[in-house]
Amino acid sequence: MKPVAIIGGGITGLTAAFRLKQLGISTVLFEANNRVGGVIQTVQEGNYLAECGPNTILETSPIIGELIAELGLEDRRINTSALAENRYIVRNKHPVKLPVSPPSFLASPLFSFRAKARLLAEPFIRRSPDDEEESLANFVRRRIGREFLDYAINPFVAGVYAGAPETLSVREAFPKLHALEQQYGSLILGQILGASKRKNSGTVSRQHAPKFSFDLGLQTLTDTLGQRLKEQIRTSQTISTITRQNNLWSLGQGEEYSTVLLALPAFRMAELQLTCDSHAISLSMLDDIQYAPVASVIMAFHQQDVAHPLDGFGALNPRKRSE
After folding, report:
1. List of residues 6+ apart from 250 with CB closer than 8 A
2. Closest by Cα among 267, 218, 261, 286 to 76
3. What is the pLDDT of residues 224-237, one digit of tens each?
4. CB 161 within 8 A of CB 137
5. Against a cut of 0.85, is the pTM above it?
6. 16 contact partners, CB below 8 Å, separation of at least 6
7. How deeply is 76 buried, as exposed, middle or buried, from its count of CB atoms within 10 A (0-12, 13-18, 19+)?
C-alpha cells in the first residue's frame, strides 16, 4: 500500500501522522517551514520563557490525556495553579473577578442588579427557529441582556476569536450554545441538565476543564511528536500542486500516495493547484475565509513590582469603556 501524504506540520498534521503510525500506516509529512509545530512556538531567554502562540492546553476530552501519556510526557506536564483560576474583566478601570458560582454572581460588582434580575427571565424566553441565522450579539441580547454582552461575551469573543459578536454566527462559531437553546429551550437549564450527558461521554465543559503546559512550554509537545516522526517528516518543502490519476496521488515530486491529508489553513489551501483525473479543481473560494489579525506582545516584570496578587489566569478588556 502506498503511504499517506500529510501536508502541514502543525499540531493537526503531527497528531494525524502519529495516529496513523500507531495503526501501522506509512505516512510522509511535508512542512513548508524549517521546523514543525506551526503556531506553537516557545522562546526561552535566560530565566524567561514565552509562548509565541497558545500558552496552555484545555483538557476537555480524555483523548488529550491519552496522547500525552502515549508520548511519555506525563512527568513533564505542569498544571495551572489552583490559586490562579480566577478570570478578570476590566470594568471602571479596575480588574473585577468573573463570578463562577451563583453566590459569587449575586455578590459580584461586575454586573448591575438590573442585569442579574434580567437573567432570571432566561429560562422563559422562547427559543429561535432552528434554521434562523442569528449573530452572537443578537442571541446574547435576546437571551440574557445587553450588559452580559458588553462585559462577558464581548471580551471573551475578542480574546478567543479576535472578532466581534455582531459579525459571528452563533450557529457556526458557538454551535454548543445554539444546541443548548434548541434542545433545552434555555442556556441555564441546558447547563444543568447537560451535565450528566457530558459526564457519561467523558467530556468536560470548557469552564471546568483542566489547563496545562509543560516544563519547557507547549513546544515540548510538538517537538516530541516531531522526534517520534522524524524519519517521516520533510521540512522546507512547499507543496503547490496535487494530482490524482488512477486513484493515486502525486505532489509533483515523482512519488505516489494512496491518500492526501491537508492540515493547512484555508488561505494556504486556496493556493493549491488540484487536478483529479485531468480535471482542474479550484480551491480559490477558500481564500474568502477571513482570518482576524492578532499581535502578541510579550512583557516580563519582577513579581515584587506587581501589586496585584496574581491569582488569575488572565484579564480581558471589553470594548465598552464607559458606563
Report:
1. 242, 243, 244, 256, 257
2. 218
3. 999 999 999 999 99
4. no
5. no
6. 6, 27, 261, 263
7. middle
pLDDT, mean of residues 305-309 = 90
Q: Where are the alpha helices (DSSP H) in the chain?
A: 11-22, 62-70, 102-107, 113-119, 136-143, 146-148, 154-161, 170-173, 175-184, 187-193, 195-201, 219-228, 266-269
> pLDDT digits over 197-207, tens only?
766 666 666 66
| Cell numbers at 9, concatenated | 506540520
Spatial CB neighbours of 163, under 8 Å, sequence gap ≥ 6: 157, 292
For strand 94-97 and strand 86-91, is the pairing parallel, antiparallel, or unpaired? Answer: antiparallel
CA 323 to CA 313: how far, in whole Å? Answer: 25
- Pairwise CA distance, residues 87 & 89, whole Å: 7
Tens digit of each residue's pLDDT (9 = 90 or more) over 95-112? 999 998 888 988 999 999
**Lowest model confidence (mean pLDDT) among 93-102, 254-263, 266-275:** 93-102
Residues whose CB is less than 8 angstroms from the CB of residue 162 and which lie 6 or more positions away in sequence, other chains included = 292, 293, 294
Query: Are the C-beta atoms of 312 and 87 separated by less than 8 Å?
Result: yes
* Residues paired with 261 in a beta bridge: 6
Instruction: Check residue 283 and give its pLDDT.
Output: 94
- Could you give the CA distance from residue 175 to residue 44 in angstroms, rounded to a whole number? 37
